[in-house]
Q: What sequence folds into this?
């Protein structure tokens, strides 16, 4: 572990939470992206986190994609509608995304607090005995 | 009745030289001082090594360095104080009228 | 008699401080170019060469501070500056710099104690 281990560990989590935040904002931005039934729907993105296991934090293991089927919605006036008047909407729930948004923000803030506290502790260690 | 002649006076046992006593005490203090200097050298070298390790990020805890630095500084101050007292005492003795 | 001012430890510490202050400037440059397309983040390395020079008993002042560009692909516009990592690097560099300055101060204080006789 490096000399400032706590700060590096919190840093790995900051990267994870920011990636999560990016994924959520992408999901919310595309919540009304309509596709014709011949194509797959817009797939929601989920960040897969994996602990490093040796006490040094967390890594982004990958991005999982949501349902490709989406929801079939009847919208005959839409230019992309098929013969029966259906289009594909993404299978994303706005309230679930908002909840995740708040969780990712809190997680990000919590890790920033860890960095701050660790920095104060290290500064006191540097000034030991003065 | 014959009177025996007075024999020669035997040698008087002399007390052991006082220099020998101070000699043992002097060796004790000198040894202690030399040991102290060795220890101080060791502490200073430890502090040096740890400081370079700390700035190159190899040390796992910051306080390892700061504690070593404090120990070396205190040992230096102690050695310097002992040296000053010894020099003061020596000067005092030299000033004594014979 | 060993030279008390120019000895290897003092030279090693002063090289480390130079490397750390260069790193602080590089971090500032990276953050300033956060939105520049195609910009590759700068990295400073002196720790590994200083550590090996110190262990071999070599001359620390001959160690070079290397500036490189991070070659990773980055985002869509080619910019690979990660704001979180740069912020944390700034925090850590500041702490290391404080530590280095404190180490130098300690050395000079010990010298002064020995010279001045407490």
A:
């Amino acid at each position: 572990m490096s000399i400032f281990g706590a700060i590096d560990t919190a840093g790995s989590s900051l990267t994870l939470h920011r990636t999560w935040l990016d994924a959520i904002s992408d999901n919310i931005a595309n919540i009304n992206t309509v596709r014709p039934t011949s194509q797959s729907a817009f797939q929601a993105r989920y960040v897969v986190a994996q602990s490093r296991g040796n006490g040094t934090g967390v890594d982004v293991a990958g991005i999982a994609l949501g349902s490709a089927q989406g929801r079939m919605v009847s919208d005959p006036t839409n230019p992309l509608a098929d013969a029966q008047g259906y289009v594909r909407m993404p299978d994303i729930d706005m309230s679930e995304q908002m909840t995740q948004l708040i969780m990712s923000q809190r997680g990000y803030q919590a890790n920033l607090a860890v960095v701050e506290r660790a920095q104060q502790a290290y500064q006191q260690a540097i000034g030991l005995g003065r | 009745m014959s009177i025996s002649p007075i024999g020669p006076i035997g040698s008087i046992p002399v007390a052991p030289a006082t220099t020998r006593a101070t000699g043992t005490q002097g060796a004790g203090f000198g040894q202690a001082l030399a040991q102290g200097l060795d220890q101080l050298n060791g502490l200073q070298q430890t502090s040096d090594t740890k400081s370079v390790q700390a700035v190159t990020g190899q040390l796992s805890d910051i306080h390892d360095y700061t504690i070593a630095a404090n120990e070396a500084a205190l040992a230096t101050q102690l050695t310097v104080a002992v040296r000053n007292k010894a020099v003061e005492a020596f000067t005092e003795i030299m000033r004594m009228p014979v | 008699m060993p030279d008390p001012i120019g000895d290897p430890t003092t030279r090693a510490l002063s090289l480390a401080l130079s490397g750390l202050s260069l790193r602080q400037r590089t971090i500032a440059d990276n953050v300033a170019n956060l939105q520049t397309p195609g910009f590759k983040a700068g990295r400073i390395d002196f720790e590994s060469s200083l550590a090996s020079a110190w262990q071999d008993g070599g001359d620390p002042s001959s160690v070079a501070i290397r500036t490189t560009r991070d070659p990773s692909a980055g985002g869509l516009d080619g910019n690979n500056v990660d704001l979180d990592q740069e912020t944390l690097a700034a925090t850590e560099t500041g702490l290391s710099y404080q530590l280095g300055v404190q180490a130098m101060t300690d050395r000079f204080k010990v010298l002064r104690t020995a010279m001045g006789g407490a």
Observations:
- The longest strand of chain C covers residues 42-45.
- Chain C has a mean pLDDT of 87.
